[in-house]
């Protein structure tokens, strides 16, 4: 009977209960019904125990670093850098949009931040250059999902902590899939540019202009080098790297670019604190939820049921991708990972799938779900920024989603795509 907390949880979500409360209410109710009252206080103790973690401190620090970069106007320097190199080709501003998202991903790791920061700048610019507003919004929404895939990534930190695997290994595994999505989108745009005669943004920049744009973008672009170089080189942990990222971005914003003043600091800290609090409360509730998953033996029952479908890992991976894609349409990536990870991961690990490989499959799939109709969070942010209706945007984004789904299946059935770098570095 205890396993019925899973459908009860879904019912509570459908009637509009916030995810945090549903994560606690569903298992709490079932524990009470089963006469396991003594275990109910365990739920609430585990909220604190789940948050009280040194590795999780990376999340508020990376959120703070992203907020500093947004306020510091770093987005503009990334856009100018991208445009100086590829703005002259047909469909140039669409390419610039995608390339800026790839660069921004290495700084913030947030799809929503990418959509709002780059979208507010690129969507009006693309419309002025001759693109339709719905096309500009679709490109922005589709490319912003690269944010949580190319490290640093908040959802990968959550997955690594929840499932007790290496953050560094996940970061390393996310690099190639993120680049593949970006390049895949740019190839699609190139094909559309010829067929639809998309506009050319500007004349080809001179090498002097490119040098000037590179100089302006140099300090922001050094951020992912410092973060990833430090983590993968063993110089500091992901948590220490996040603190270094905050210090570095503050120095760049206040003293190098001079786009942040002391009066901006309180609002920056307040905004990042609010965002971090939401995520950390979810993580704490998810750890409490995971306790009941263990008590109910849901993972074991799921594994037994899964094997009745097929014992072929490739078939099961195909089916689980479909499931995750559907889940991603309705549930944000973070909550989906902390709810489904403890249930699905043990099943596939028992079938011989590498834990890091499955983590990347799940992370990329649910991240793409952020831009998937009908409930993708990024769609609503892009709609708000652009003024395009969600229904219109949902139709316009479909070709770009097809590319991203193709990448998901490639990394699913060809593990070396995501596992080469972690293995090369000795992390997996």
UniProtKB/TrEMBL annotation:
Signal peptide: none annotated. InterPro entries: DctM, TRAP_DctM. Keywords: Cell inner membrane, Cell membrane, Membrane, Transmembrane, Transmembrane helix, Transport. The keyword tRNA processing does not apply. The chain crosses the membrane at residues 6-33, 54-79, 99-123, 135-161, 167-190, 217-236, 242-261, 273-293, 313-331, 336-353, 359-385, 397-417. It comes from the Bacteria. It is a multi-pass membrane protein. The keyword Cell wall biogenesis/degradation does not apply. Part of the tripartite ATP-independent periplasmic (TRAP) transport system. This is TRAP transporter large permease protein. It comes from Enterovibrio gelatinilyticus.
């Amino acid at each position: 009977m205890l396993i019925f907390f899973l459908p009860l949880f879904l019912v509570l979500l459908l009637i509009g209960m916030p995810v945090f409360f549903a994560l606690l209410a569903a298992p709490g109710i079932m524990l009470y019904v089963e006469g396991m009252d003594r275990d109910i206080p365990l739920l609430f103790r585990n909220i604190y125990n789940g948050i009280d973690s040194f590795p999780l401190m990376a999340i508020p620090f990376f959120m703070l670093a992203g907020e500093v970069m947004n306020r510091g106007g770093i987005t503009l320097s990334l856009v100018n850098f991208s445009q100086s190199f590829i703005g002259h080709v047909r469909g140039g501003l669409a390419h610039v949009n995608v390339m800026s998202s790839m660069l921004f991903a290495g700084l913030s790791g947030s799809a929503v931040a990418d959509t709002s920061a780059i979208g507010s700048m690129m969507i009006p610019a693309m419309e002025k250059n001759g693109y339709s507003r719905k096309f500009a919004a679709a490109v922005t929404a589709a490319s912003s999902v690269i944010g949580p895939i190319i490290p640093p990534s908040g959802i990968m930190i959550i997955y690594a902590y929840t499932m007790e695997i290496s953050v560094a290994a996940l970061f390393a595994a996310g690099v190639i899939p993120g680049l593949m999505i970006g390049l895949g989108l740019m190839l699609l745009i190139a094909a559309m540019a010829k067929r639809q005669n998309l506009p050319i943004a500007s004349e080809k920049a001179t090498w002097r202009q490119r040098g000037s744009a590179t100089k302006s973008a140099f300090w922001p672009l050094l951020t992912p080098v410092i973060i990833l170089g430090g983590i993968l080189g063993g110089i500091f942990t992901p948590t220490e790297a996040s603190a270094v990222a905050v210090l570095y971005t503050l120095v760049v914003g206040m003293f190098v670019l001079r786009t942040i003043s002391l009066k901006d600091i309180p609002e920056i800290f307040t905004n990042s604190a609010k965002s971090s609090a939401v995520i950390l409360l979810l993580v704490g509730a998810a750890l409490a939820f995971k306790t009941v998953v263990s008590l109910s033996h849901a993972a074991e029952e799921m594994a037994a049921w899964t094997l009745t479908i097929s014992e072929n890992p490739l078939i099961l991976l195909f089916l689980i991708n479909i499931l995750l894609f559907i889940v991603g349409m309705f549930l944000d990536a973070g909550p989906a990972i902390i709810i489904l990870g403890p249930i699905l991961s043990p099943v596939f690990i028992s079938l011989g799938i590498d834990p890091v490989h499955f983590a990347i499959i799940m992370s990329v799939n649910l991240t793409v779900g952020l831009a998937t109709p009908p409930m993708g969070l990024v769609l609503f942010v892009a709609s708000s920024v652009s003024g395009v209706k969600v229904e219109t945007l949902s139709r316009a984004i479909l070709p770009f989603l097809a590319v991203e789904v193709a990448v998901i299946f490639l990394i699913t059935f060809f593990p070396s795509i995501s596992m080469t770098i972690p293995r090369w570095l000795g992390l997996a």
